[in-house]
Amino acid sequence: MKKQRLKYKQIIEAAVEVIAENGYHASQVSKIAKKAGVADGTIYLYFKNKEDILISVFEEKMGQFIEQIASSIRHQNRADDKLETLIDKHFRQLAADHNLAIVTQLELRQSNSEIRQKINQVLKPYLVVMDDIITEGMEQRVFRDELNIPLVRQMIFGTLDEIVTNWVMKEQKYNLVDQVPLVHGFITNGLSAQQERGGAN
Amino acid sequence: MKKQRLKYKQIIEAAVEVIAENGYHASQVSKIAKKAGVADGTIYLYFKNKEDILISVFEEKMGQFIEQIASSIRHQNRADDKLETLIDKHFRQLAADHNLAIVTQLELRQSNSEIRQKINQVLKPYLVVMDDIITEGMEQRVFRDELNIPLVRQMIFGTLDEIVTNWVMKEQKYNLVDQVPLVHGFITNGLSAQQERGGAN
Amino acid sequence: MKKQRLKYKQIIEAAVEVIAENGYHASQVSKIAKKAGVADGTIYLYFKNKEDILISVFEEKMGQFIEQIASSIRHQNRADDKLETLIDKHFRQLAADHNLAIVTQLELRQSNSEIRQKINQVLKPYLVVMDDIITEGMEQRVFRDELNIPLVRQMIFGTLDEIVTNWVMKEQKYNLVDQVPLVHGFITNGLSAQQERGGAN
Amino acid sequence: MKKQRLKYKQIIEAAVEVIAENGYHASQVSKIAKKAGVADGTIYLYFKNKEDILISVFEEKMGQFIEQIASSIRHQNRADDKLETLIDKHFRQLAADHNLAIVTQLELRQSNSEIRQKINQVLKPYLVVMDDIITEGMEQRVFRDELNIPLVRQMIFGTLDEIVTNWVMKEQKYNLVDQVPLVHGFITNGLSAQQERGGAN
DNA sequence: AATGAATGAGCGTTCATTCAT
DNA sequence: GATGAATGAACGCTCATTCAT
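^ Those are the sequences you sent over. The predicted structure of the assembly is below.
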C-alpha cells in the first residue's frame, strides 16, 4: 500500500476536489475514482477504506500546512512575532486554496467522531507549535506568566478556526489575510499582562 | 402538528439521548421512537421528517439556552460583566447537561449543510446578544472603540466553542465552569484599550 | 353498517371526487374522509375497509348506470334499436359525468385483481342486458344466428369500453356521443348476416 | 447500462414470472432479484429503478409481439387477410405465453398513470400497423371508404383486448386461437360496405 | 354514533467493498 | 498492478386500520 506515490497523490487530489464540489455526504468512492482516473477497485490498492482516504487527505494537506507555518516561525525570536506569523500563514494558506478551505472547515467536520479523532491526531503537531509559542511568550514576559497553556491554545485555535469558517461560509467574499492584524492584536492583548479592569483609565 | 406538547417533548428528549449515546449517524428514527416510547409512525405526527426532529432538538434546547443567557444579562450594566455572565451561563448550561453538550458540540455538526444552515439560523439570536455586548462595551469605553464587531464576535464565539468542544472530547474530565475567569480575562483583555506592544519588558 | 344513508352517500361522492382529482394511488382514506367532512374513523362505520369503499363506489354508480340503460331499452322492440340506445346511453352517461368517467375508465383499473373481480360482478347485469339483446337479435334475424354470445358480448363491450377510455385519455376533447352512429353501424354490420367476402361491389 | 444482455434478459424474464405469480403490487424488487439469481443491487446496474424494469418488460415483450405481427403481414396483400393474420398472431402469441398474458392483460394495468403512459408509447407502433391495414382496406374497397380510422382502430383493439382479457380471467380454460375466425368475421363484416339496415329478411 | 391520535408493517434504493479476470 | 461488475445490508416514511374517549 501507498507504494506508487503518483497514483496515491492523484487520488488525494481527486478526493479534495470531489468533496469541495459535492460536499462530504455526496462524495462516493466511485466519484473520487472517476476524478482520479482510476477504477474503483484501484482505490483499495492505495487506501484501506474510505475513512483512510479522508484521513490521508488531512494528513497530506495539513502536514504541509503545519510544516509551512513551523518553518516560517523557526527563525523568529519574539513570541508575539511568531504568533503573528502563525496567524498570517494560517489564513494565507487557506485563502490560497479554496477547495482545501472548504474541505477542512466545512466538509470534513461532517465525518463521524471516529474519523474526527484521527484528524485531531494529525492536528496535534500544530497544537504543539502553539503551545511552544505560548510557553516562550511567558518566558519572554511578552505574555502573562500564569497562563493555562492548553486553555489558551484552545482559545487561539478556536478564534482562528471560527474566523476562517465564517469566511468560507460567507463564500470568501472578503480578504481573509486583511484580518490578521486585528486578530493578532486581540490575542496578544488578551494574553499580555493584565491591566486594571475596565481599562481606559 | 406540534399540538400535544407532551409527546413532542418526549420525542425531543429521546432524540438527544439517542444521538448522545449512538452518535449522529447511528440515530435511526426507529431508535428515537423506541426510546420515546411511541411507534415509529407517531414521530411523523409531530415532525415533518427526520431532519425536522434534529432541527427541532436544536431549536428547543438552544432556544432555552440563549434565553437563559439573555435574561441573565438583562439587568446588568457593564459590558464586561455581561460578558462574564454570558461565558458563565454558556459553560454552566452545557456542563449541566452532558448529553446536550455531546449533541451540540460533536454530533449535530455531522449533519449535512442544509441542516447546518438551519441550525445557524437558530444560533443567530445568540450572536446578536454578543454583538450588543460588544457595542455597549465600546460605548462604555470598556472595550476599544475601533472594534470590528462581526470579527470580534467570531473570536469570542470561536473561543468559547472550542473550549467546550475540547472539554466534551476530553470526556468532561475537568470542571468547565472553573475556566470562566481565565477565559473572561483573556477576552476582556483582548478587547480593552491597547497597550504598547509586548508590554512589560 | 350502511345504516344512515346520508353519510354513506357523502363518502361515496367524496371518494369519486378524490380519486378523479388525485388518481387511484394517491387517494388515501384520510383524504376521502376530509372531503366527505367526517373523521377517518367514521369511514369504518359505513365501510368494512378501503376496498369496500371502492367496490361500493362502483356498485352505486354502475347500478344507476346500468338501470338507466336497461329501462331505456325496455320498451324498444328491435334488437338493433336496443343496441343503438345502449351505446347512446353508455356514452351519454359517461360524457355527462367526467369524474365518473375518469374513475371507472382509468383509476379503478389500477386496483388489484381481487377488487377487479368484484367490480366485474357488479358489471354482470350489464353483460346480461347485452346478452339478451344479442339473443333477441338472432331471434329477430337482425343478427346472424350462429353467434357465440359471450364472445360477441365481449367484442361489443370491448369496443365501447376502449372508445370511452380513449376519449377520457384524450381529455375529452371531442364529443363522445357523436360517435354513436359509427359505432352502432360497425357493430350491427359486424353482427348481421354474412356477405360474401370482400363484399358489395 | 443494459450492457451485458444476458443478465438484462434474466431480470426481464424473472420480472414476468414474479409479476404473474404474485401480482403487480406484491412484486418487490428483491423477489425479482432472487428469481433472477442476482443480488438486489445488481438490478440497478441494468435498470434505473423499479419502474424502468416494468416498462422494459413491456418494451421487450411487446416489441417482439408487434414485430412478429408486422412481419407476418408484410407479404400479404389483401387488407382483410392482413387483419386475419393480425388477430391470429395477436391471440396465438398471448396463448403461447400464459405468464405474459397475465402480466400484460391484468397486472401491468395496475401501474400508475406515468408508467401506463410509457406503456402506451410502446403500443403505438401496433396501432400504426392497424391504421395501415384500415387505410389499405379502404383503398382496396374491402372496407367501406368513409371510415374514421382512429375510431375503427379503437374498436378493433378494444375487441381483441377484451377477448384476451376475458380469456385470461377465465383462467384460459378454452382455446383462444379458435376464436379467430369469429372475431375476424365480426370485424370485417362491421367494416365492409354497409348493407341496408337489418339486412336479411 | 363520531372522533382522530396512535399504530407498525413493509420496501425501493444506495454505495462501500470484494474478487475473478 | 488494475479493473469494474457484483454484492447485500441498512433505513426513512406512508397509510390503512384500531380503539379509547
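Residues 65 and 93 of chain D are 7 Å apart (CA to CA). The two ends of chain D are 65 Å apart (CA to CA).

Shout if you want it in another format.
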